[in-house]
Every structure is written in C-alpha cells, then in structure tokens.
Design a protein that fits this description.
The chain has about 100 residues and is mainly alpha-helical. A hairpin with a 2-residue loop joins strand 1 and strand 2.
Length: about 100
C-alpha cells in the first residue's frame, strides 16, 4: 500500500490529527515505513495456527451468585459523612 498526500489527509481527518505542511512529508514517509513493516506479516506461514482470543490460558474463577438479604438503609448510611434521608450526599461534579 502506498501512502500519498490524499490518503494521509484522510487518515489525519479520521484520527483527528493536526500537523502543518512542514511535517506532511515526514508523516508520509513514517506511515509508509509502518505499512511496509506490517506487510511483512503476510510472509509468515500461519497455516494450522488457531486464532487467539486471549493471550493467557488462565480461566476465570467465577463464584456462584448467592442471594442475600440487603442491609437496611439506616445501617448503610450509619458511617456516611453526609446523608439526606436515605441517600448519600456527595459534592456536585457537573455544572
């Protein structure tokens, strides 16, 4: 694949990249090197290799869901620094 000015502009737009005209030629060159490096992967024989879904062979140890009774609101709010009836009061974070 060949990277030209038009392709670079399209990629820059999609990736929300901004650079000036002085950097354009360097970016075209660098992206061309990246593409040629990745294209070398096509030379690797992958026949008989199963695709990976994860890099680890570990298995998640999920626990069984156990239904328990909830704590009463008074117990939950007992140590709250600020509360309002049955709610936690927290500082405002959005305007």
């Amino acid at each position: 694949m060949n990277i030209d000015q038009e392709t670079l502009n399209k990629i820059a737009h999609l990736a929300r990249l901004e650079f000036d005209e002085n950097e354009t030629q360097a970016m075209v060159s660098d992206m061309g090197k990246i593409i040629s490096f990745v294209e070398k992967l096509n030379e690797v024989n992958t026949d008989g290799v199963d695709p990976l879904t994860t890099m680890s062979h570990e298995v998640n140890a999920f626990r069984d869901d156990i239904v328990k009774t909830d704590l009463p609101p008074e117990e939950v709010l007992k140590n709250a620094p600020a509360k309002d009836s049955s709610y936690f009061r927290v500082p405002k974070v959005l305007e």
